[in-house]
Structure formats: structure tokens, C-alpha cells
Amino acid sequence: QPRIPLETFSKAVEAIYDCALDPIRWQDTIAVIAELLQSQRCALGVHDLASGHNRLAFQLGYVEEYWRLHESKYKSINPVWASIQLMPVKTVATNSMLIDDQEFFESRFYQEWCKPQGLRDAIVLKVLQTEKRMGLLVANRYPRYGDAEVRLMNLLSPHICRAITISDVLDLKTIRSEALEATLNALGSGVYLTDRHGRVVFM
User: Fold this and answer.
1) Burial level of 75, CB count in 10 A (0-12/13-18/19+)?
2) Exposed / middle / buried, residue 194 (Cβ in 10 Å: 0-12, 13-18, 19+)
3) CA–CA separation, 139 vs 42, rounded Å?
4) Rounded to whole angstroms, how far apart are CA atoms 111 and 108?
5) For the sheet containing 41-48, what is the strand order?
6) Which alpha helices (H) appear in the chain, and where do they start and end?
7) From CA 195, how far away is CA 89, in angstroms rounded?
8) Confidence class for position 1, pLDDT limits 50, 70, 90
9) What is the pLDDT of residues 155-175, one digit of tens each?
10) Which of 2, 39, 70, 124 has its CA 20 to 30 A from that of 152?
């Protein structure tokens, strides 16, 4: 694979950090990452471990029917799922780094979900891990991923993880702020909050 120009890489990193404050931009940014990795499919998700739902989810290139099947049925029988859950944050791995080829190709996950879509390999980046949430960036394609793609993903890894962490912290602050506002609004008596200069910030 030819070397990626520095300007191209820099623009990708810039796009990643733009997503920290505006997560909707991930939809365009995963397209940039997929192109760098020469991948037909790419997905980014932050999974809420308690509820089982995705708090942040963007995908590129997957047929809607297969995407729904993945979320409802096949994700839980992915033979590399247990290994992915144990990966440290910022770790990059391909299928062959996580599981024996024969075991993977004989699995129901490959036979019923990957193979019909022409997907043979995957490259995974653990972007977030807390007590309540786990985040992954996954790309798929037919040709095997090699050392060049692993190196590239490792270069992108700290930037993607930082952007996701910033978004996660900001989202938690928003949730707490909204919960506090709802609590204050529920009180029967009048409430005024002022800043240190005496200006009313909530009424």
C-alpha cells in the first residue's frame, strides 16, 4: 500500500477532532477513515452495557437489513466478541490477531452474516471502556488487512480515542445538567440560582 500523504493524514485527524464537539460529524469522518483503510464498510459505536443500546452509532456501507440483523442477532455470536471486550483501550486488532482462521470461517457469524456480504476480514479499534460503556471502531473488507492498515489505525487510535472520550464526558455533563434542571423545575417553591456576580442563571 502506498504511503499516505501527510496532508491527507492531517485532514483526517482534523476531521476526527471536529467530531469531539459535534458527534454527528462522525458520519462523514468514518467515510474518510474507511477510504484510508480501503474498506467497503465501517462502523463506530458506543455501547451502553447496562441497557444494551448504542448511545452513539454511525455506520457506512452496510445493507440496512444486515445491520439490523447484526445488532439484534449476530453481534452476540461473533466468535471474536469476547476477545474484543478484553482488549485495552487504543488497541488495534484484525480478525487473524484474535481468532484462528478455520474457527472463524466455520462460525455461524461468518457463514450467515459476513460471507453473504462478501466480507472476509475486520480491523477493530477499542475507542472507549468505562464501567458503563464500551466503544468500538470497526472496518470490514474482503482482502485481508495487513501491517500497513494496522500501522495506520495505530496512528489514528489516540486521536479517535481522545475525541470519543471528550464527547462522552460532555454528554455526561449534559445529562447531569438536564437532570438537575428537571429536579429544580419539579419543586413547588420558586428557585433562583445566581452566579458569583449576582446574575440570575436559572429561575
Assistant:
1) middle
2) exposed
3) 4
4) 5
5) 54-60, 41-48, 133-141, 121-129, 92-94
6) 6-21, 26-36, 64-69, 81-86, 95-98, 101-105, 108, 147-186
7) 39
8) low
9) 999 999 999 988 877 765 554
10) 70
19 vs 40: CA distance, rounded Å: 22
- Rounded CA separation 24/83 (Å): 29
Read off the pLDDT of residues 6-34 as tens digits, 9 standing for 90 and up. Answer: 999 999 999 999 998 888 899 999 999 99
166: amino acid identity, one letter: I
Calculate the CA 168 to chain-centre distance: 11
Using the Cα atoms of residue 40, residue 46, residue 55 and residue 67 in order, give the sign of their dihedral.
positive
pLDDT, tens digit, 9 for 90 and up, residues 137-148: 999 999 999 999
Type of residue found at 152 = L
pTM of the model: 0.80
Cell numbers for 78: 461473533
